[in-house]
Write a structure and sequence with these properties.
Order of helices and strands: HEEEEEEEEEEE
Number of domains: 1
Strand content: 35-45%
Distance between the termini: 51 Å
Number of strands: 11
Helix content: 10-25%
Largest sheet: 5 strands, mixed
CATH superfamily: Cupredoxins -  blue copper proteins
CATH class: Mainly Beta
Number of helices: 1
CATH architecture: Sandwich
Shape: globular
Radius of gyration: 20 Å
CATH topology: Immunoglobulin-like
Length: 124
């Protein structure tokens, strides 16, 4: 009987610990117009994000590239691939990225399809 209670306690504790480990995913909305993002700079807290990119007459198709600041943005090996939209964003549409975990630091974001400048994303 004692072993049964110990087993119950371990299972109950494991379930509680798992439930407390749930993390919050924050959605960040980004809009593109011709040659630009309307959000020229982002400041976020360390955490997990999904980026939603809207195409407001920017180009037939737009996307999102995110890299650590200082890395060569033209090299796809430096891109944070989870920050790519899961489908290119057609005119008038909105698409999302996968979940992206951002640590403290500075990042650069841009769209190579819409030829936007490179903007700064700061994670505090």
């Amino acid at each position: 009987m004692k072993n049964l209670w110990i087993a119950f306690f371990v299972v109950a504790f494991s379930f509680t610990a798992t439930a407390q480990e749930k993390t919050t995913v924050t959605t960040v909305a980004l809009e593109q117009t011709k040659g630009a993002f309307t959000q020229k700079e982002l400041r976020l807290k360390e955490g997990i994000y999904v980026f939603q990119v809207s195409n407001n007459n920017a180009a037939p198709e737009v996307g999102l590239v995110l890299v650590k600041a200082g890395d060569d943005a033209s090299n796809p090996k430096n891109h944070i691939t989870d920050a790519y939209v899961t489908e290119v964003v057609k005119l008038g549409k909105t698409e999302s990225t996968k979940e992206v975990t951002l640590a403290k630091g500075t990042y650069t974001y841009f769209c190579p399809l819409n030829k936007t400048p490179q903007y700064t994303l700061t994670v505090e």
